[in-house]
Amino acid sequence: MLILRKGLFGILAVLALCSATHAEPVKIRIGWAVPAANWGSILLEKKELARHLGQSYVLEPVHYNGSPPQFAAMARGELEIADLTFSTLPIAIENAGLVDLRVIAGGFQDGLPGYYSQEFMVLADGPIKTVEDLKGKVMATVGAGAAVDVGMRGMLLRYDLAKDRDYTMVEAQFSNMRTLLLEKKADLVPMVPPFAFDAELRKIARPLFRQTDVSGQTQLVMWTARQRFIDDHRAAMVDFMEDALRITRWFLDPANHKEAMAIVGRMTERPPEGYDWVFTERDYYRDPSMLPDLAALQKNVDLVRDLGFVKDDLDVSQYTDLTLLEEAAKRLNK
Fold first, then answer.
1. Domain 119-215 belongs to what topology?
2. Considering the entire predicted model, what is its pTM?
């Protein structure tokens, strides 16, 4: 009887092992808004470096027009990793009730000395010379609460210019901003790479101010995931972060710059030589370890509160979990 029982336990152990071995890879849907600027848009371009892809996880990049739709999708269970800006993080937590949201990695930072800072542009030969000249004018935004929206409102508020009372706002995609400005349907438009480096835009427009003028150094974008998903799929998430780190470092390596330009050109269906700035000091700053600047992020989140998008203070350290990234980095650094 004892032998039979031991045999049964052995069979069950083998079946359990086989079940684990043949478990389906975890599906990770990752949001992105701007091609090449957001890591989620470009990771699969170097999938040969993703050693765990198709084994412990599968990756599905999903495009959104900005970050606000991403946390809405996450709330509906349609997204596992949202690429949120500093402005949408507190809105998602307080207004959308995603209290288990966690910052798991940094995306890119704005305004570091020597690197790019997103621009708010006016017609070069137009009547707008100062921020005060924007009174009674039309501003363009990609959506209420987006990072460029908060940056714009923050600067206008300094000059006691309030939405609806002193100016009008219209919404549009980044790809349409140049047309809005050229056709004088908007007097001020936000610009981010790659759209900011459009040669035709540069012929007709100039920056009136930059994000760094509003908030200094900014942790502009970061990856977020819900704690429940992290806990349920920790091993797969560490594998994914390991692959993401490896790919990130490849794109940031100057030795790979020419190939990186070709990849971005192919993605956007534009000549690669127009992307000589990508992943250089002319671009946003990206930490090669994918670590966010939490001190900057705290100041950025406080600005969102000051503008009235959320009511309560938010301690970003309570909504951060960098252990996945730390564990993945240890593997690569061995």
1. D-Maltodextrin-Binding Protein; domain 2 (3.40.190)
2. 0.84
